[in-house]
């Protein structure tokens, strides 16, 4: 599996986690995987880790949402560590 394939699959899984409104590249736009065209924001596959940036809905505890995103991504990350950044909160109703 290529890094881009991994990033896409992890992005799909992360978006299905309860409490995740969307993905984010983070406050400095560093959580991205490059591809042809615009970069895939919200997942960065590094040699030793995968970083995931999320926009959370405040419907559950943020640490619980982050832990569930990490658990969803771990089977796809191989031997890489998985780090989750809660980069923003979604407004109610979004």
Strand content bin: 25-35%
Decide which structural class fits the backbone: alpha+beta
Taking all Cα atoms into account, the compactness measure Rg is 12 Å
What is the 3D form? globular
How many individual helices? 2
Whole-Å distance between the termini? 33 Å
> Helix amount, in percent?
25-40%
Unreliable residue runs = none
Number of strands: 6
Order of SSEs, N→C? HEEEEEHE
Provide mean pLDDT, rounded: 95
Q: Describe the largest sheet.
A: 4 strands, mixed
Describe the structure.
The protein is an alpha+beta fold. Helix content is 27%, strand content 30%. It has 2 helices and 6 strands, in the order αβββββαβ. It has helices at 3-15, 62-73, and strands at residues 20-23, 32-33, 40-41, 43-45, 49-56, 81-89. Strands 1, 4, 5 and 6 form a 4-stranded mixed beta sheet that branches. Helix 1 (3-15) packs across helix 2 (62-73).
Topology:
Blueprint: H1 3-15, E1 20-23, E2 32-33, E3 40-41, E4 43-45, E5 49-56, H2 62-73, E6 81-89
Parallel strand pairs: 5-6
Antiparallel strand pairs: 1-5, 2-3, 4-5
Helix pairs in contact: 1-2
Features of this protein?
94 residues, four-stranded mixed beta sheet, two-stranded antiparallel ribbon, 2 helices, globular, alpha+beta, 30% strand, single chain
Brief synopsis:
With 94 residues, the chain is of the alpha+beta class.
């Amino acid at each position: 599996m290529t890094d881009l394939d991994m990033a896409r699959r992890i992005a799909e899984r992360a978006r299905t986690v309860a409490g995740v409104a969307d993905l984010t590249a983070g406050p400095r736009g560093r959580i991205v995987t490059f591809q042809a065209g615009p970069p895939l924001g919200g997942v960065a596959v590094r040699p030793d880790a995968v970083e995931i940036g999320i926009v959370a809905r405040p419907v559950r505890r943020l640490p619980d949402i982050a832990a569930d995103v990490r658990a969803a991504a771990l089977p796809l990350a191989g031997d890489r560590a998985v780090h989750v950044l809660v980069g923003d909160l979604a407004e109610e109703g979004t």
